[in-house]
């Protein structure tokens, strides 16, 4: 504890005093526990390994550096735990020739040991004598291919450290280590498994499961014990690897401890127009929000501010005059808080690196001890990973014992959105906007007074609040905990690693139980492609009859189970089949001519895993039905989802050509079976449901895709259609091998079938009310579309499906087109956004060109790599390319640049609109929609920029009939012909003016509400917010309208008007 | 009521061909004085100004000022239906949303009429104030078209430099450079083939080839073209329509920065 003088600071503001007067943030005190008598239980969250010294009395090698597994977690009471697990040694398997006998074991071990020690880079400085601990012969089977039922000999090579595993593999395959194995073709098994996975598999630890240490098996580290504490955890213990119990997350072990989640956000005072750089720009505020997992209320909110800040109702404010002091206090606060999970928005790539680099620059000592280990500093590392999201460069920072759970990564992984700014994510998921303060004005706020800093603090706190609200809304943490438990991987790997680790972990667990060894797959991806799923040619149309949908439940998993498709049942060739003496009844030949033994010969491992997953899911779903508690419900739902995803990912794993263990025979067969089944279903339905067989009409399959078939029974009521659907599902299920099952799930009524993978319908599961509107493959999420398209399509579908009003839908579409041509569409709806990434320079792209243009205009505010650039397409020369016509929406608004309505009509709206209306309007759709009467009124906008605009003069036209006013009458409002109607024209204009005024004040109030203060200036320049654009546009229209009204020259009306406007601008 | 009868529909057709590249739709402002059209092209770089005097029509009646918005592509479809020596009568009611074109063949007893839907264009009316020019160059319109076409093969812009000796059009591009010099001709016998330069002070300005090329679509209207240049003022390319009026194009000069 270091005592600091409260030196330069004498203000009346609170400062955060670590370990001082407040215990607000500390964990609950530890209850006394006695290793000799007490059982110690905790929930494990994070797991890593380190190389350390031998702990006396533990199994494993007794000398030299040894690998030690470290588990972090918390107890039920909320105390943090660090548990060192000793004595676990890594190992792998190799195949052996039959000539290899027990007598060879000793010499082979010595030779390999010698080779490994000589191989240590830089010499054997640690004085290691035993690199190889044990070599033993184990009987078992290769996971891949059926070789008969006899076990084969394998050598299990146990090594003292994990780093020897790849070395041993390399040495064995490249050098002759042992003479009698010189001609042996070495195959390696499980050598590519990392030590954490190995440990978890061997000890049955799943992600986030409860660990029980029985009395007398464990030792507590205290200030007085021989081994001193190495972590900041409240409790630190040691245990042998084979001496604890890992509880499967069922029953009483199913709940989740109250993990501490710490969400934070920083603000930096950047220079005008330059993105903050940690070497120059100070951190001015750090907002923190703390919540316990599973507890509804937030535990605490506070904010660390540089300079004074007025008090905030819902948060503690701590002020500092010196930035270093603030950072130091914050780090101390984090250590005292001892969170299990860090969250925030983009903390991995911005907040954390910035904090660390800034602290380094300011030479704040001890700032970077943010993890749980006493002597390990958090450091930034850059790594590339391959996940579902694609290849990405990550900054990773080590926080031993704490999990960085960046919500940006979670949202990117789980949601497909148009934009991933915090603002638009909140709008999509939470349904609310937040104000967006551009980083260039943050400095101004900071340099203001304590009120402006309070303003900033409120904004900053909101940014720390939102990630937590996102977690609570999308339940991602709950779901990830369940996923970790189901697949048995640590929770951290769900964010940082790909899909495959999950399957590998399950495969390893089950292979171990069944006596299989998983080969370490090596090799380049094969070029061969297998055929995907089948699609029945759609009979396009707008169906006003109910359309029943029959789905195969868990199609791919059930195919694998039904046909016993697995690595372990694969027979590579007919020669092999004959050699093994298998008869034709014992072997299945799949539609792509791959051979697999039937389950009567050997039940496959994958079918076994899948059965386990499906059964578990069924069980969970049953529990879910009875569950009342919303928290439990969320947990169970997360778990059943995890089972489903895991079951489906097995198929993907066998087909992943750059994967850990691809097997195209399996994945190819699965899809081939799927295709055949869809076809068969179609035939069965159409043969059975006919007038001949006594049904009302001849049923027709109008479409089918992957695992579902859409049937038009041509009946008029939902009830009858559902009845027939259920009947058909049961009838056809009997024609397939169990567990393949056809289920009747829903009826679409009405149903709009546009094309393959493109359809929309009103989704009914019960006859009285529809569940939702279901749209597939229709322009709703494509990011290169403007929101106008999404909105129009959405509204049209709503009119078509819910209102059943095709004419209304057509009229609506026409109205929008007409608005577009008359420049009445809000610019926010026309904005297209694309991310500016480095690689884009090869071909010219709209957003890249625009970024260059903006840089020329104002180098300070130009977009940077990684920014998402919003743009609109403006009217240009006939031959101009789209990329030349892209323009910044704000610039367009300010300069009244005309929008290229034709581009939006032809390149954005026309295709999707014509597509959805073609089934209704037929081939005329295009002509009706795009060239009808409604396209004949247009507004031509005159830009304020452009080469000629400097020279042109506007001629006044009559406000009544738009004809040019003759010379000498330019100041009149109307022409001589319209003079009689002047009064009514004036009324019209005034009315319009009033309408704009009302509109503007509404919008203004909306923004004031959003910023949470009605008497402060609006700072928000959020480019994701439609209100922002509308506000700008109305402001300009109001300006014009004011001038128009003024032309009537009625002094009274004008004066009144202007005075009321003055306030607004 | 608006009614205008033009002896040669071909003239109107030529006018149409001369502007439809630059404009998609346009408002025709009709008044006692005649028909006027003034509009900027889509990218706001050039301006088209058409003036057809009422005297040039065989018959002209315009009861009140009237603005007719037309889609030029549709309009040229209508005029494609007229014979080369037809007369055309344009008719519209005061508050109508259509306009009628009636074509009468001179020798045959054939009358055809086409009614076209008008567009309601909400547009600002723009004008360019009259200015003094440093150089006014008159040259055969065919020659001008040829020069622009030739030079635009090489580069994106043409420099027009005018001195006492003559006028020089030059360009440069990736493959090289091109220059065309025209000297003032003294052959006043054939006025339409002569080059006449009226220079106050020398100028040198740069213009986009693309737009100049579009302007030369008006070549069939007139044998002569007039280029008026002055620093910091748009170039005016003017074609006289014999006995009927004129068609003027305004084009802003390129500023050095723009070229990159």
From TrEMBL, chain A:
Pfam families: DNA_pol_B (PF00136), DNA_pol_B_exo1 (PF03104), POL3_N (PF24055), zf-C4pol (PF14260)
C4-type zinc-finger of DNA polymerase delta domain: residues covered: 958-1031
Annotated GO MF terms: 3'-5'-DNA exonuclease activity; 4 iron, 4 sulfur cluster binding; DNA binding; DNA-directed DNA polymerase activity; nucleotide binding; zinc ion binding
Domain DNA-directed DNA polymerase family B exonuclease: 187-425
Keyword Transcription: no
NCBIfam families (alphabetical): pol2
Protein name: DNA polymerase
Gene encoding the protein: LOC115891039
TrEMBL record, chain B:
GO molecular function terms attached to this record: chromatin binding; DNA binding; DNA polymerase processivity factor activity
Domain Proliferating cell nuclear antigen PCNA N-terminal: 1-125
A Pfam match: PCNA_C
Subcellular location: Nucleus
Annotated keywords: DNA replication, DNA-binding, Nucleus
Matching SUPFAM superfamilies: DNA clamp
UniProt keyword DNA-binding, yes or no: yes
Domain Proliferating cell nuclear antigen PCNA C-terminal: 127-254
Keyword Nucleus: yes
Single GO biological process annotation from the record: leading strand elongation
Coiled-coil intervals: none
CDD domains, sorted: PCNA (cd00577)
InterPro entries: DNA_clamp_sf, Pr_cel_nuc_antig, Pr_cel_nuc_antig_C, Pr_cel_nuc_antig_CS, Pr_cel_nuc_antig_N
GO cellular component, one term: PCNA complex
Function in brief: This protein is an auxiliary protein of DNA polymerase delta and is involved in the control of eukaryotic DNA replication by increasing the polymerase's processivity during elongation of the leading strand.
Assembly and interaction partners: Homotrimer. Forms a complex with activator 1 heteropentamer in the presence of ATP.
Family to which the UniProt record says this protein belongs: Belongs to the PCNA family.
Protein name as annotated: DNA sliding clamp PCNA
Lineage of origin: Eukaryota, Metazoa, Ecdysozoa, Arthropoda, Hexapoda
Protein's gene: LOC115885314
């Amino acid at each position: 504890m270091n005592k600091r003088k409260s030196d330069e600071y004498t203000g009346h503001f609170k400062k955060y005093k670590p370990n001082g007067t407040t215990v607000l943030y500390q964990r609950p005190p530890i209850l006394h526990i006695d290793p000799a008598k007490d059982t110690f239980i905790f929930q494990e969250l994070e797991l890593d390994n380190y190389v350390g010294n031998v702990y006396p009395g533990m199994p494993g090698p007794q000398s030299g550096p040894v690998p030690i597994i470290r588990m972090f977690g918390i107890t039920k009471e909320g105390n943090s735990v660090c548990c060192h697990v000793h004595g676990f040694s890594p190992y792998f398997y190799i195949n052996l020739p039959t000539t290899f006998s027990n007598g060879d074991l000793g010499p082979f071990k010595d030779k390999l040991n010698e080779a490994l020690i000589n191989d240590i880079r830089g010499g054997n400085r640690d004085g290691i004598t035993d690199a190889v601990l044990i070599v033993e012969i184990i009987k078992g089977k290769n996971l891949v291919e059926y070789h008969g039922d006899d076990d084969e000999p394998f050598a299990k090579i146990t090594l003292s450290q994990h780093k020897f595993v790849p070395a041993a593999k390399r040495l064995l395959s490249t050098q002759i280590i042992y003479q009698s194995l010189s001609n042996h073709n070495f195959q390696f098994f499980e050598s590519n498994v990392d030590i954490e996975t190995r440990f978890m598999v061997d000890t049955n630890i799943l992600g986030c499961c409860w660990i029980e240490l029985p009395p007398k098996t464990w030792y507590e580290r205290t200030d007085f014990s021989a081994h001193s504490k190495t972590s900041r955890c409240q409790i630190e213990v040691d245990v042998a690897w084979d001496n604890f119990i890992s509880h499967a997350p069922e029953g009483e072990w199913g709940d989740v401890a109250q993990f501490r989640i710490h969400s934070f956000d920083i603000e930096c005072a950047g220079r005008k127009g330059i993105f903050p750089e940690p070497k120059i720009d100070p951190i001015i505020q750090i907002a923190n929000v703390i919540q316990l997992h599973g507890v509804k209320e937030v535990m605490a909110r506070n904010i660390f501010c540089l300079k004074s800040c007025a008090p905030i109702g819902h948060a503690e404010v701590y002020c500092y005059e010196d930035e270093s002091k603030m950072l130091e206090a914050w780090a101390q606060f984090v250590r005292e808080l001892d969170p299990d999970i860090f969250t925030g928005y983009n903390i991995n790539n911005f907040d954390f690196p910035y904090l660390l680099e800034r602290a380094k620059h300011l030479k704040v000592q001890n700032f970077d001890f943010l993890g749980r280990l006493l002597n390990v500093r958090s450091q930034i590392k850059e790594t590339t990973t391959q996940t579902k999201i694609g290849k990405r460069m990550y900054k990773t920072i080590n926080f031993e014992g704490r999990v960085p759970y960046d919500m940006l990564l979670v949202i990117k992984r789980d949601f497909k959105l148009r934009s991933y700014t915090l603002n638009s994510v909140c709008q999509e998921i939470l349904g609310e906007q937040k104000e967006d303060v551009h980083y260039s004005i943050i400095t101004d706020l900071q340099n203001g007074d304590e009120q402006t800093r309070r303003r900033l603090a409120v904004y900053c706190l909101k940014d720390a609040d939102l990630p937590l609200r996102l977690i609570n809304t999308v339940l991602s943490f709950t779901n990830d905990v369940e996923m970790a438990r189901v697949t048995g991987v640590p929770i951290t790997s769900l964010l940082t690693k790909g899909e495959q680790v999950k399957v590998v972990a399950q495969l390893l667990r089950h292979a171990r139980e069944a006596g299989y060894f998983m080969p370490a797959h090596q090799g380049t991806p094969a070029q061969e492609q297998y055929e995907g799923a089948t699609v029945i040619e759609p009979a396009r149309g707008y169906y006003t009859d109910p359309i029943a949908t029959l789905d195969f439940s868990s199609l791919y998993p059930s195919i694998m189970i039904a046909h016993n498709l697995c690595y372990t049942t694969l027979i590579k060739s007919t020669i092999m089949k004959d050699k093994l003496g298998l008869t034709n009844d014992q072997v299945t030949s799949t539609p792509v001519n791959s051979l697999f033994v039937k389950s009567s010969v050997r039940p496959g491992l994958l079918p076994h895993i899948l059965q386990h997953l499906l059964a578990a899911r069924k069980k969970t779903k049953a529990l879910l039905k009875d569950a009342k508690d919303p928290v439990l419900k969320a947990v169970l739902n997360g778990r059943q989802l995890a089972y489903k995803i895991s079951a489906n990912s097995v198929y993907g794993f066998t087909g992943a050509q750059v994967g850990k263990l691809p097997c195209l025979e399996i994945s190819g067969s699965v899809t081939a079976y799927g295709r055949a089944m869809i076809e068969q279903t179609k035939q069965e339905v159409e043969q059975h449901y006919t007038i001949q067989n006594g049904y009302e009409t001849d049923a027709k399959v109008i479409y089918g895709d992957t695992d579902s078939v859409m049937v038009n029974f041509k009946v008029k009521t939902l009830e009858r259609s559902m009845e027939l659907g259920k009947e058909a599902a049961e009838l056809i299920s009997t024609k397939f091998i169990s567990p393949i099952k056809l289920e009747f799930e829903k009826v679409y009524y009405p149903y709009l079938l546009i094309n393959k993978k493109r359809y929309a319908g009103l989704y009914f599961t019960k006859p009285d009310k529809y569940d939702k509107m279901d749209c597939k493959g229709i322009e709703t999420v494509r990011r290169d579309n403007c929101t106008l398209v999404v909105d129009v399509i959405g509204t049209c579908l709503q009119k078509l499906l819910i209102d059943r009003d095709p004419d209304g839908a057509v009229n609506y579409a026409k109205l929008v087109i007409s608005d577009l041509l008359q420049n009445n569409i809000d610019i926010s709806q026309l904005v297209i956004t694309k991310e500016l990434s480095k690689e884009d320079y090869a071909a010219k792209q709209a957003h890249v060109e625009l970024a260059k243009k903006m840089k020329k205009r104002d180098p300070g505010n130009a977009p940077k790599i990684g920014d998402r650039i919003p743009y609109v397409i403006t009217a240009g020369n006939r031959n101009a390319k789209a990329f030349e016509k892209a323009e910044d929406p704000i610039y367009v608004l300010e300069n009244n640049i005309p929008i290229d309505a034709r581009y939006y009509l032809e390149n954005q709206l026309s295709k999707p609109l014509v597509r959805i209306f073609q089934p209704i309007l037929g081939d005329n759709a295009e002509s009706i929609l795009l060239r009808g009467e409604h396209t004949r009124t247009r507004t031509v906008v005159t830009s304020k920029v452009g080469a000629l605009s400097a020279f042109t003069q506007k001629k006044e036209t009559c406000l009544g009939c738009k004809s040019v006013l003759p010379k000498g009458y330019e100041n009149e409002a109307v022409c001589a012909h319209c003079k009689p109607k002047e009064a009514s024209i004036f009324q019209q204009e005034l009315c319009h003016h009033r309408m704009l005024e009302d509109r503007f004040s509404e919008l203004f109030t909306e923004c004031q509400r959003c910023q949470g203060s009605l008497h402060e200036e609006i700072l928000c320049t959020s480019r994701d917010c439609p209100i922002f654009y509308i506000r700008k546009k109305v402001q300009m229209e109001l300006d014009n309208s004011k001038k128009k009204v003024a032309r009537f020259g009625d002094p009274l009306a004008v004066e009144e008007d202007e005075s009321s406007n003055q306030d607004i601008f | 009521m608006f009614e205008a009868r033009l002896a040669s529909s071909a003239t109107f057709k030529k006018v149409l061909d001369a502007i439809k590249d630059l404009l998609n739709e346009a408002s025709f402002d009709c008044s006692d004085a005649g028909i006027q059209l003034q509009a900027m092209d889509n990218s706001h770089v050039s301006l088209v100004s058409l003036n057809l005097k009422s005297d040039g029509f065989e018959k002209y009646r315009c009861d009140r000022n009237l603005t007719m918005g037309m889609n030029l592509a549709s309009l040229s479809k209508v005029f494609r239906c007229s014979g080369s020596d037809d007369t055309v009568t344009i008719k519209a009611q005061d508050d109508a949303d259509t306009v009628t074109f009636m074509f009468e063949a001179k020798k045959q007893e054939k009358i055809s009429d086409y009614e076209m839907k008008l567009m309601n264009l909400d547009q600002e009316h723009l004008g360019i104030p009259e200015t003094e020019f440093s150089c006014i160059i008159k040259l055969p319109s065919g020659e001008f078209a040829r020069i622009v076409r030739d030079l635009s093969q090489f580069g994106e812009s043409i420099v027009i430099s005018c001195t006492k000796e003559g006028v020089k059009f030059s360009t440069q591009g990736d493959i090289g450079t091109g220059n065309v010099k025209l000297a003032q001709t003294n052959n006043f016998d054939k006025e339409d083939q002569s080059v006449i330069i009226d220079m106050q002070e020398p100028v040198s300005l740069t213009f986009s080839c693309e737009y100049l090329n579009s302007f030369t679509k008006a070549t069939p209207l007139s044998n002569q073209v007039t280029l008026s240049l002055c620093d910091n003022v748009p170039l005016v390319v003017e074609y006289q329509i014999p006995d009927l009026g004129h068609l003027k194009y305004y084009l802003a000069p390129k500023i050095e920065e723009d070229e990159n």
